[in-house]
């Protein structure tokens, strides 16, 4: 069972990102402050949930949270400062947009660039341990999926509606055959040693 938050002394925001390993599109991040005693059946790490489950949980989180915000860094920023720094920047932007500023941050993962004047803790697999990080993971994931689905309308050949920009074999193959779209991350490696091995089965 997930805990409400990491500590109870200070008002706390959970933070997580989505899209870090994608070939195309922005990296999204969310920050969420939940009420004390908040309970939501089914709330868990977004990776453990189906698309339908995430979409059902998102409006409840957005309605019931004390504060929430979603922000992003686009593909050009990712190419300029690298994906790790872009993930940190997207989280900073989300925190900055919170209508209520937290006094403590919990970050999913093992690294973070400190946000000015707010202490933090990094929690490995935190989205499966704390409700506020799980909520952030769902908001980051659903907002990013929505963004990539909208991009798919103009770039259907990459099938972003299905793969959301992640490096599936079919997505890599499309880039190799068609070329990069304006939204692909140019510093990411599109080819892979296993591509030829699997391409015959696509």
From TrEMBL:
<comment type="function">
    <text>Endonuclease that specifically degrades the RNA of RNA-DNA hybrids.</text>
</comment>
<protein>
    <recommendedName>
        <fullName>Ribonuclease HII</fullName>
        <ecNumber>3.1.26.4</ecNumber>
    </recommendedName>
</protein>
<feature type="binding site">
    <location>
        <position position="16"/>
    </location>
    <ligand>
        <name>a divalent metal cation</name>
    </ligand>
</feature>
<dbReference type="InterPro" id="IPR001352">
    <property type="entry name" value="RNase_HII/HIII"/>
</dbReference>
<dbReference type="InterPro" id="IPR024567">
    <property type="entry name" value="RNase_HII/HIII_dom"/>
</dbReference>
<keyword id="KW-0540">Nuclease</keyword>
<feature type="binding site">
    <location>
        <position position="17"/>
    </location>
    <ligand>
        <name>a divalent metal cation</name>
    </ligand>
</feature>
<keyword id="KW-0255">Endonuclease</keyword>
<comment type="similarity">
    <text>Belongs to the RNase HII family.</text>
</comment>
<keyword id="KW-0378">Hydrolase</keyword>
<keyword id="KW-0963">Cytoplasm</keyword>
<feature type="domain" description="RNase H type-2">
    <location>
        <begin position="10"/>
        <end position="200"/>
    </location>
</feature>
<feature type="binding site">
    <location>
        <position position="108"/>
    </location>
    <ligand>
        <name>a divalent metal cation</name>
    </ligand>
</feature>
<keyword id="KW-0464">Manganese</keyword>
<keyword id="KW-0479">Metal-binding</keyword>
<dbReference type="InterPro" id="IPR012337">
    <property type="entry name" value="RNaseH-like_sf"/>
</dbReference>
<dbReference type="InterPro" id="IPR036397">
    <property type="entry name" value="RNaseH_sf"/>
</dbReference>
<dbReference type="InterPro" id="IPR022898">
    <property type="entry name" value="RNase_HII"/>
</dbReference>
<dbReference type="Pfam" id="PF01351">
    <property type="entry name" value="RNase_HII"/>
</dbReference>
